[in-house]
Amino acid sequence: MSKNNDLVHWLRLARTEGIGPVTFFGLLAKFGDAKTALDAVPRFNTKSGAQKYRIPALEDIQNEIAATQQFGGKMLRVIDDEYPNNLAQIAPPPPVISVIGNLSLLQKPMVGIVGARNASAIGIRIARVLSAGLGAMGYVVVSGLARGIDGAAHKAALSTGTIAVLAGGIDHIYPAEHAELYHNIKEIGLVVSENALNAEVTARDFPRRNRIISGLCSGVIITEAEEKSGSLITARFALEQNREVMAVPGSPLDPRAAGPNGLIKQGAHLVTNAADVHACLQGFGRVAEPEGKGIYGNAAPIEASANTIKQIEVLLSPTPISIDELCEITSLPWRTIAAIIVELELEGRAVMTSGNRVSSVR
Asked: pLDDT tens digits for 26-48?
C-alpha cells in the first residue's frame, strides 16, 4: 500500500477543517492518494481569496494517533481490511473510524435497534426481548448508548455481541449514567466513533452517529419514537442506504408510537419478535462492492471528460444542490461527481458547502 495513504496523511486530510467526507473522497478521486490531496489543499480559496481549508499540524495528528493507541483503541481507514464492509459502501463512508473492543463483531451480521430516550416500560421490555432473541440467532445488536431503548438493547445483547456507536470520541461516556454499561461494552462488545479521542458531544454529532448505526447494519428497528425524533433520522438514513427499515407498532394513544406507526404506514416492515426481523433480513446479505475498498485510496485518479464536467457545471446554480440530487439526475457515481466538484472548486467555478451541497460561483 502506498505510503502516501498511510494513517497520518489519511487522518490529517480527514481532520482538515472544512473538509467533509464528500470533499475528502472527491480529493482522493481527483489526486489519487491522501498525501497528494493534502499538497493540493492550499490551492483552494474562498471567494474573498482567503485559504478555504485549514490543515491541522502534523504533530496534532501524530498525538491523536498515539493517544488512541494508548487508550487501547485502533483507527480504521475505509481501505483497511478490518473496516466494516457495509459501512464502506455508503455514499460517502466515514474516512476514518476509531474502535475499541472486540473487532471481530464487525464481521458479523448486524441489526440496529433504536428508539425513545423516555421509553415506556413496555418499550424497554420489547427492546430487550428483540435484542436477546436476535443475539441468540447470531446477530450483533447496534445502537447509540442513549437512555431508554438504546440502553435496554445493549444490555440484553452484551453476552452475544453489541456495538455502541458514540457521538463523541470513543472515550467520551454520554450519558454519564451509562458509565458501567459503556465499560462492559468496551470490554466484551465494541465501541465505535468517527470523532477524535477526547471529543465531547455536540448537537451536530448525533445525526452523524445515526448514519453510522444504519450504515453498519442490514436493517434497523424503530421501537418507540415520537414524530421528528432522532430515531426517525436513523430510519431515513437506512432508507437512503438501501437498508431494511422495521418498526414495532404501538398504541395510537401513546405519542411514542407515532414514529413507528407512521413508518409502517409508509411501508416499513411491521415486526414484533426476532423471528419477524430474521425473516425480513433474509436475502439481504452483506453489501458487496465489486471493485473493493481499494477504489477509495489505491486507484488511479478519476479523469472526467470535458463533456462530463460541463454536464455537471450546467446543472449548478447559485442555489446549492446536493450531491445525491446530482447523482440522480446524471446517473453518475458519487465519487465521479465529487472529483468533478473538486476540479471546479480549484478553478473557482463551484463551491462546496455544508451538508454535501454545491453551488456555482457567480
From this structure: 999 889 899 999 999 988 866 66
